[in-house]
Amino acid sequence: MYSALQQIPLFSDCTPEQLETWLAQVPHRFETFAPGNRIVAQGTSVRSIFLLTDGMVRTQMAQEGRDFTLDLLEAPMLLASAFVFGTENTFPVSVEAITECQICIVNKEAFFDFMIAQPKVMRRFISDISDRTQFLSKKLRAFALQNLRSRVLDYLREHQPLESVQAAAQALGVLRPSLSRVLGDLQTDGVVVKTGEGWILT
To answer: What is the pTM assigned to this prediction?
Structure first.
């Protein structure tokens, strides 16, 4: 259990014994979530840190009655690092289990005290926040500057074959009919083709 926590980059400089000693003294719990279960709802106050030790989750944002998939995250990792200590520290997204997941939930003030005692952990935490901010900036730039056709092509470069149009529409934050139209146009232009495995670039 504690060796699984050590696999999270945040704690790579700690020993399992250090983590066990720390957690024995602070409020925490381990929880298991089945596929499809909601781990955190959008808008929930961030009172703890969420350490994903096993499984994969989806982060989603509700927008005008639709769910937009922001990212797919796989263990081991810290979830929502950028929002733990903010002035308005609520989850801007919901977190849903894709596979069976195990999460260690630790009081955030206890985590802050641990970072004070372990400067390497604090440095890695700051690095994690910076990396997530870069990721979110790229996402925002893609939405602000690219039209849907360009976004679909970028998505295919990273995720082909595109097996589920519905899942891709959620990831791109568009309606399924809109994505289907763009895929049809791209197919007509000879840019993509639909195979038995899904949509791919030609």
So the answer is: 0.71
